[in-house]
UniProtKB/TrEMBL annotation:
<feature type="transmembrane region" description="Helical">
    <location>
        <begin position="263"/>
        <end position="288"/>
    </location>
</feature>
<protein>
    <submittedName>
        <fullName>High-affinity branched-chain amino acid transport system permease protein LivH</fullName>
    </submittedName>
</protein>
<feature type="transmembrane region" description="Helical">
    <location>
        <begin position="42"/>
        <end position="61"/>
    </location>
</feature>
<feature type="transmembrane region" description="Helical">
    <location>
        <begin position="15"/>
        <end position="35"/>
    </location>
</feature>
<keyword id="KW-0813">Transport</keyword>
<feature type="transmembrane region" description="Helical">
    <location>
        <begin position="230"/>
        <end position="251"/>
    </location>
</feature>
<dbReference type="Pfam" id="PF02653">
    <property type="entry name" value="BPD_transp_2"/>
</dbReference>
<feature type="transmembrane region" description="Helical">
    <location>
        <begin position="183"/>
        <end position="209"/>
    </location>
</feature>
<dbReference type="GO" id="GO:0006865">
    <property type="term" value="P:amino acid transport"/>
</dbReference>
<comment type="similarity">
    <text>Belongs to the binding-protein-dependent transport system permease family. LivHM subfamily.</text>
</comment>
<dbReference type="GO" id="GO:0005886">
    <property type="term" value="C:plasma membrane"/>
</dbReference>
<keyword id="KW-0029">Amino-acid transport</keyword>
<keyword id="KW-0812">Transmembrane</keyword>
<dbReference type="InterPro" id="IPR001851">
    <property type="entry name" value="ABC_transp_permease"/>
</dbReference>
<keyword id="KW-1133">Transmembrane helix</keyword>
<feature type="transmembrane region" description="Helical">
    <location>
        <begin position="95"/>
        <end position="114"/>
    </location>
</feature>
<keyword id="KW-0472">Membrane</keyword>
Amino acid sequence: MDAFLLQTLNGLDKGSAYALIALGLTLIFGTLGVVNFAHGALFMIGAFCSVTLQRILNLSYETVDPSKTDFLGNPLKVKTPYVESWFGPETGGAIIEWSVPLAIIFAIPVMLAIGFSMERGLIKHFYKRPHADQILVTFGLAIVLQEIIKYYYGANPIQTPAPEALSGVAQLAEGIVYPVWRIVYFFFAIAIIGAVFAFLQFTTFGMVVRAGMADRETVGLLGIDIDKRFTLMFGLAASVAGLAGVMYGPINAPNYHMGMDFLVLSFVVVVVGGMGSLPGAVLAGFLLGILESFASMKEVITLIPGINQIIIYLVAIVILLTRPRGLMGRKGVME
């Protein structure tokens, strides 16, 4: 029972990342009809937003501290972060320590700007082109973004630690402990998913977007600038992917290829859930995350070596053979 609980928690942890990325992918495909292979790169850029903010907050100046000397008796130079000099050692230190959660505020405008730039500068020219063209151009864009990150930040993973208060483990039951930050990430994912669904379901903007997803031409004939709203949805989808990356940094240190690591799996999640189905993307994300977690158990790997590497694809094959539209796919999408 303990192993079952731990593997379920691990699955929900992985599923949270899958669900958030797949949600953004489905938003883009459902509104714009674009197969965006650069979406994993947006997840990566979000993770590096936290790295960037961490470096900004740690910018320091040197002062001579006469109370500290080296072995020759010379006063030592001490680096003091500007944040600590502005807000005081305690407040400044707390700001630096909580740089990852604070990066959420930093990442939202950055990801919105990147999303708008991608859609207006490149994606809009491929709306009526075949999906193969969309895949090629967005995959090429993903490689370019990946190489830019590699050039400026290097090839090695960069640690973005969680705040000390959230970096320990929580005792869930007798003899069962689990990292606090992974629990925080799960609830963060649930909050973001809930906010997106509430926005689409209960706001006038969201209702128009949903109507446009169902019948774009009719909504346009009503005098509504649906293209502008869809551009905003691209920015929203980019922000969802970016926020998923920001909070994932303490779990997996940001590196330039992390977007590609999640990209293929996220597309499998979208296809399994059903192209164009937002609930399907979320359901499939958590389902496949849990299955992958259980397939990684030592007992399972011993019985079927390598099953943890292919379990998601096997499940995808079975589901698509029995339900060609996916779990909750809409009729007419990608047919």
